[in-house]
Design a protein that fits this description.
Number of domains: 2
Bound molecules: adenosine-5'-triphosphate
Organism: Hasllibacter halocynthiae
Number of strands: 10
Radius of gyration: 36 Å
CATH architecture of the largest domain: Up-down Bundle
Oligomer: single chain
Protein name: ATP-binding cassette subfamily B protein
Distance between the termini: 51 Å
InterPro entries: AAA+_ATPase, ABC1_TM_dom, ABC1_TM_sf, ABC_transporter-like_ATP-bd, ABC_transporter-like_CS, P-loop_NTPase, Type_1_exporter
CATH superfamily of the largest domain: ABC transporter type 1, transmembrane domain
Pfam family, one: ABC_tran
Membrane topology: Multi-pass membrane protein
């Protein structure tokens, strides 16, 4: 499946410009100070080379004590200034860089969390983690490289070359001849780096995936003795990352022999030409020559760093593209521009001619359904028939490809998402709890709920007794996804959360399946009270939980096959009747009696 957050095709130039624009807009002051410090660092480097002429001339005439002391003081001043400027540059670059990482991590997360459920179905969570963690760091790295290398090293190099040309124009030309050769060598290296970096990120993603599956699937790993299998996967993943790291380091380092060799040629050329100059009768003063040679030697380091810069840019670029890909991704569930909040009503939920599929094949087809306001409806039918999908569409977690989903006659497609979600409470098959206290988990439904309201909701969900017996009561931490609690306890907290929300439509998808029949009966009784005047839709495989429903809808292969009261469906002798007979046994009288009681 194509990844909508795939890297944008933009070239290096536009990507760098965009990052710099973003970085300077957010952290212009910090970068401004750092760049000013870099200008001072570059200037002081040129000054060191420049002052050599003065030093040599002063040493050639040591009787002039004033000149010697002035030179010595100048050297001290230059180095003190260079040290202070280097410190300022490092501190401000680091502060700006850390802020940039935080900003991109937040922006990427913020964009991701506003995507629809479909995006998270398509994208592996390990991939998402990698994009947030590695991608944001790559953005900082790229800005750092550009600012430090392009500004400081380029300015330093320009200053030093300026000194060289001023002191010895011919010799400068000779030494600069090696430049084009260096560029050619670096181009070859770059091509290799690009291909390795792409696969490096895939290898990283596998490490995150193994970690996540180890944590989430630890029970399966233990019970099926999969420890060695997981170790093998991790070993493979970390080795792949290691191999690629080594290749990248090798390529980055390959710039060194190229530059070293070329530097040797440049210096040898300078020696030969200056010897020829002397013989040819164009002598330079020792001071001029010393100043030139110092500038040439000092130019070597920034030149080497600049030669590595392109390789480092290429390694960071893959992560940067990932981040920009997410930031530029269209909203997978965009609100209509003229979307309005749903108007209040009694909570009638309706589907008209709804067709929808997660992929190409439709899961529900041309569905017409009415869940009347204030009534309880039950969805039953074989597994995979589309019951949960109907609830997903009602919550607008997915948009129908055809037809309309309406609340109180208002099409959800034209409503703001927040107003739709506000009207609906949901307890699903897989209860999710946050890694915080029991109280905070329930309060997620309504942040302004008082402690008394939280506890009342827990009472209704038959959770209060067990919560009171926990070591810190409502303040007990529940662990990652409620791992310190039993399945039934988790479900009761999820039900309490849904009750606290006080919305007028309540959806329950196998919400009491993890409970023993005694607890289930208690909750059913409480839920019947809480949902009395609400539009309620219940999915349950255990028919005992839905016998009191106002209507029962039998769904199979995405279609409504039967609907009616329990009495109607039993009398119709269709698929519901067969399901009913299978669960209770034809000779069992109790549910029939219950049906009578439900009238
Ligand atoms: N996120 C998804 N991506 C792709 N296909 C999905 C997704 N969720 C469900 N399906 C498919 O849609 C069909 C209907 O699934 P759904 O969960 O709605 O059925 P259900 O009646 O609720 O089943 P059950 O009773 O087992 O929960 C199934 O074939 C399922 O494989």
């Amino acid at each position: 499946m194509s990844d909508p957050s795939a890297a944008p095709a933009a070239g290096l130039g536009p990507i760098i410009m965009r990052l710099l624009r973003d970085g300077f807009r957010e952290q212009g002051r910090l970068y401004g100070v750092a760049i000013a410090a870099m200008v001072v660092v570059a200037g002081s480097a040129a000054a060191v080379a420049w002052v050599m002429e003065w030093i040599i001339d002063a040493l050639g005439n040591p009787e002039n004590r004033g000149a010697v002391i002035a030179v010595a003081s100048t050297v001290i001043a230059i180095f003190v200034i260079k040290g202070a400027a280097t410190y300022t540059q490092s501190v401000f670059m680091a502060r700006a860089g850390n802020r940039i990482v935080a900003s991109y991590q937040y922006r990427v997360y913020s964009k991701l969390v506003s995507q629809g459920v479909g995006y998270f179905n398509r994208t592996e969570s390990s991939d998402i983690i990698m994009r947030v963690v590695q991608g944001a760091t790559a953005c900082r790295t790229l800005i750092d490289i550009i600012v430090v290398s392009a500004v400081r090293d380029t300015l330093t190099l320009v200053g030093l070359i300026g000194v060289m040309i001023y002191q010895q124009p011919t010799l400068s030309l000779v030494s600069l001849l090696v430049g084009p050769v260096a560029l050619w060598g670096i181009r070859i290296i770059l091509r290799r780096v690009k291909s390795i970096m792409e696969s490096q990120l895939t290898a990283f993603s596998e490490i995150y995936r193994v970690l996540q599956e180890s944590s989430g699937g630890i029970h399966v790993i233990k019970v099926f003795s999969l420890e060695d299998h997981m170790r093998g996967r991790m070993d493979g993943a970390v080795r792949r990352v290691e191999d690629r790291m080594n290749s990248i380091s090798r390529l980055e380092s390959a710039t060194s022999p190229i530059i070293e060799t070329l530097a040797g040629f440049a210096i040898a050329g300078v020696i030969l030409v200056s010897a020829w100059n002397v013989l040819g009768g164009q002598p330079s003063t020792p001071g001029e020559l010393m100043s030139f040679v110092t500038a040439l030697m000092m130019a070597y380091e920034p030149a080497k760093r600049l030669s590595r810069m392109r390789v480092s840019i290429e390694t960071a670029l893959v992560g940067v593209r990932m981040v920009l890909g997410i930031l530029d991704m269209p909203e997978s569930q965009a609100e209509a521009r003229d979307a309005r909040p749903l108007k209040p009503g009694r909570g009638a939920l309706e589907m008209r001619g709804v067709t929808f599929g997660y992929g190409a094949a439709p899961v529900v087809r041309n569905l017409d359904l009415l869940f009347s306001a204030g009534q309880t409806s039950a969805l039953v039918g074989p597994s995979g028939g589309g019951k949960s999908t109907i609830l997903n569409l009602a919550m607008r977690l997915y948009e129908p490809s055809e037809g309309e989903v309406l609340i109180d006659g208002q099409d959800l497609a034209g409503a703001t998402l927040s107003s739709v979600r506000q009207r609906i409470s949901f307890v699903g098959q897989n209860t999710f709890l946050f890694s915080t206290s029991v109280r905070e988990n329930i309060r997620m439904a309504r942040s302004d709920a008082t402690d008394a309201e939280v506890e009342a909701a827990a009472q209704d969900a038959n959770a209060h007794t067990f919560v009171s017996e926990l070591p810190q009561g409502y303040e007990t931490m529940v662990g990652e996804n409620g791992s310190f609690l039993s399945g039934g306890q988790r479900q009761r907290l999820a039900i309490a959360r849904a009750i606290l929300k006080r919305s007028d439509i309540m959806l329950f998808d196998e919400a009491t399946s993890a409970l023993d029949s005694h607890s289930e009966a208690l909750i059913q009784e409480a839920l019947a009270r809480v949902t009395r005047d609400k539009t309620t839709v219940v999915i349950a495989h255990r028919l005992s939980t839905i016998l009191g429903a106002d209507q029962i809808i039998y769904v199979e292969e995405g279609r409504v096959v039967e609907r009616g009261t329990l009495r109607d469906l039993l009398a119709a002798d269709g698929p519901f009747r067969r399901l009913y007979d299978r669960q209770f046994g034809v000779a069992e009288p109790a549910p029939i009696a219950l049906a009578e009681a439900a009238e």
